[in-house]
């Protein structure tokens, strides 16, 4: 329900997204179809925000969707590029139980590969790149409070 605007290669203007945001009623209709996970649109976008100041999330909307969905489905967060720890934590407090990440855990890897492709052996490139991803995953597990949980 709703629509998470943007794309992985860029973001459209989000100023007029109100009509595309998920309502609690739409969430319930979607839940009634038998889904297990719900990824609501509450101002989040796929791709880049082009600065944290452009992240405009409607937390009261997310809270109301969570109240409607509680005990029925897991709330999934898409569109996390550029989210600092405080925004991730606020989303969790508003009911998010699954966070899809992209650049949050890949940006160091992408920069390393871009800078070192053809300059170091492939196995070294892959090993170092994997270590960079693992480090950011571990950091974000600490941020969202999932470290040590299965």
Automatic annotation (TrEMBL):
<dbReference type="Pfam" id="PF01116">
    <property type="entry name" value="F_bP_aldolase"/>
</dbReference>
<keyword id="KW-0324">Glycolysis</keyword>
<comment type="pathway">
    <text>Carbohydrate degradation; glycolysis; D-glyceraldehyde 3-phosphate and glycerone phosphate from D-glucose: step 4/4.</text>
</comment>
<keyword id="KW-0862">Zinc</keyword>
<protein>
    <recommendedName>
        <fullName>Fructose-bisphosphate aldolase</fullName>
        <ecNumber>4.1.2.13</ecNumber>
    </recommendedName>
</protein>
<keyword id="KW-0456">Lyase</keyword>
<dbReference type="InterPro" id="IPR000771">
    <property type="entry name" value="FBA_II"/>
</dbReference>
<dbReference type="InterPro" id="IPR013785">
    <property type="entry name" value="Aldolase_TIM"/>
</dbReference>
<keyword id="KW-0479">Metal-binding</keyword>
<dbReference type="InterPro" id="IPR050246">
    <property type="entry name" value="Class_II_FBP_aldolase"/>
</dbReference>
<comment type="function">
    <text>Catalyzes the aldol condensation of dihydroxyacetone phosphate (DHAP or glycerone-phosphate) with glyceraldehyde 3-phosphate (G3P) to form fructose 1,6-bisphosphate (FBP) in gluconeogenesis and the reverse reaction in glycolysis.</text>
</comment>
<comment type="similarity">
    <text>Belongs to the class II fructose-bisphosphate aldolase family.</text>
</comment>
């Amino acid at each position: 329900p709703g629509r998470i605007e943007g794309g992985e290669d860029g973001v459209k203007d989000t100023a007029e997204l109100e009509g595309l945001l998920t309502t609690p009623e739409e969430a319930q209709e979607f839940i009634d179809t038998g889904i297990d996970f719900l990824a609501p649109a509450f101002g989040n976008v796929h791709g880049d925000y082009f600065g944290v100041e452009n992240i405009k999330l409607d937390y009261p909307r997310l809270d109301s969707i969570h109240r409607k969905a509680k005990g029925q489905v897991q709330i999934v967060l898409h569109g996390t590029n550029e989210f600092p720890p405080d925004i991730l934590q606020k989303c969790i407090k508003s009911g998010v139980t699954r966070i899809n990440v992209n650049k949050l855990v890949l940006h160091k890897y992408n920069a390393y590969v871009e800078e070192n492709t053809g300059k170091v052996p492939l196995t070294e490139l892959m090993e170092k790149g994997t270590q960079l991803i693992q480090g950011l995953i571990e950091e974000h597990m600490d941020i969202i409070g999932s470290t040590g949980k299965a």
